[in-house]
Design a protein that fits this description.
The protein is mainly alpha-helical. The chain folds into two domains: 3-83, no CATH class; 93-143, Helix Hairpins (Orthogonal Bundle). The protein has seven helices and no strands. Helix 6 (107-121) packs antiparallel against helix 7 (129-143).
């Protein structure tokens, strides 16, 4: 994929986010797009975004598809959050990434990963107490306590 084709795809993805999040609104609210955190079409080496153009151009098709899936999971998470439609199995992608989990994980995956990391970071096992506290807070938010 060349640079112009990539920019065209990214602009289309941006339009899709606007359609998803602001479809029923007569006027777009002053809410930042998820797109603005993930992508930029201005500078090939823009390091203020998660995936700059240079990184995207270097990816193969499978990796690019995973980035787009990650992006749309976050878009729908924001949409559900803003609409008050949060369900049981919709987890904050930032918290999942802290635990090293993908967006399609289950509650059992979250519990299993927490136990693994708790053994690693628990102060009684030689871990850092600050890391353990951060892990515990993320876990509690994910399981809804």
């Amino acid at each position: 994929m060349d640079l112009e084709e990539l920019k065209k795809k990214l602009r289309e993805i941006k339009r899709l986010e606007k359609n998803i999040r602001f479809y029923n609104c007569s006027k777009e609210r002053n809410i930042k797009l998820v797109w603005d955190k993930f992508f930029s079409t201005k500078d090939i080496n823009d390091y203020s975004v998660k995936y700059n153009l240079a990184n995207l151009l270097a990816m193969d098709h499978k990796s690019f598809k995973e980035v787009v899936n990650e992006y749309f999971y976050e878009v729908y998470y924001q949409f559900y959050k803003e609409s008050g439609l949060m369900g049981e199995n919709i987890f904050d992608p930032k918290l999942l990434s802290m635990l090293g989990l993908s967006a399609d994980c289950s509650m059992d995956d979250i519990k299993r990963r927490f136990r693994e990391l708790a053994k690693k970071y628990h102060p009684d096992c030689g871990g850092n107490s600050e890391s353990f506290i951060g892990l515990l807070e993320a876990y509690e938010k994910l399981i809804g306590k």
